[in-house]
Amino acid sequence: MADETAAIPLLTPYKMGKFNLSHRVVLAPLTRSRSFGNVPQPHAILYYSQRTSRGGLLIAEATGVSNTAQGYPETPGIWTKEQVEAWKPIVDAVHAKGGIFFCQIWHVGRLSNRDFQPNGQAPISSTDKPFSPQLQSSAIDVAHLTPSRRLRTEEIPQIVDDFRLAAKNAIEAGFDGVEIHGAHGYLIDQFMKDQVNDRTD
């Protein structure tokens, strides 16, 4: 018979770099689509503080690195001063309850459409290859994605710099760390996947 007094590993402390987590339960980044004009709203203070525990880790919803990063409605950004200032009271609320808060930064790349892009331009990607239809979050409706434009080689350093600036802005907003979203078919993943990335440069 198992020792009933043994600690459940999920609820035991964990040292993650310089952070001492009081348990291993982490709030994963959850896209909320409630950041009107790509600016985090005051109601996010309550949302994140309700999910905070002393010594617990929270990862903010995916946060755009530039005005070309968006692929869903009303997702937050962290490329402008206004966005950075809007994040500050949210981060402060998490810290006031003893939580550790990371900002997840992302760029959706080709998983977007002209409606989300500046001046109605095509979304950018590692490729301009067509993609298979994608279901929306309803799992019923098909997403209306605009064919992407292949980034020119000389444009790529600007995208890297967008991520650098977003990480710097996240720290300025008070976040304890940054997580780079590099999966789920978004921009970084588009560069990493052979079936998507057909570049030779």
Characterise the protein shown here.
Pfam families: Oxidored_FMN. The model has no long low-confidence stretch (mean pLDDT 94). The chain is globular and about 55 Å long. The protein is built from 4 helices and 9 strands. The chain is 23% helix and 14% strand. α1 runs parallel beside α2. The chain is an alpha/beta fold and 201 residues long.
Coarse shape: globular
| Secondary-structure element string | EEEHEEHEEEHEH
Mean pLDDT: 94
Ends apart, CA distance between termini: 60 Å
With helices defined by DSSP (H or I, 4 residues minimum), what is the helix count?
4
Helical percentage:
10-25%
- Report the C-alpha radius of gyration, rounded: 19 Å
Structural class: alpha/beta
Biggest sheet architecture: 5 strands, parallel
Q: How big a fraction of the residues is strand?
A: 5-15%
Low-pLDDT segments, ≥5 res:
none
Overall number of strands: 9
Cofactor: FMN
InterPro entries: OxRdtase_FMN_N, Oye-like
Keywords: Flavoprotein, FMN, NADP
Protein name: NADH:flavin oxidoreductase/NADH oxidase N-terminal domain-containing protein
Topology readout:
Elements: E1 14-16, E2 19-21, E3 26-27, H1 43-50, E4 57-59, E5 63-64, H2 81-96, E6 100-106, E7 124-125, E8 149-150, H3 156-172, E9 177-180, H4 187-192
Parallel strand pairs: 3-4, 4-6, 5-6, 6-9, 7-8
Antiparallel strand pairs: 1-2
Helix pairs in contact: 1-2
Give structural attributes.
201 residues, five-stranded parallel beta sheet, 4 helices
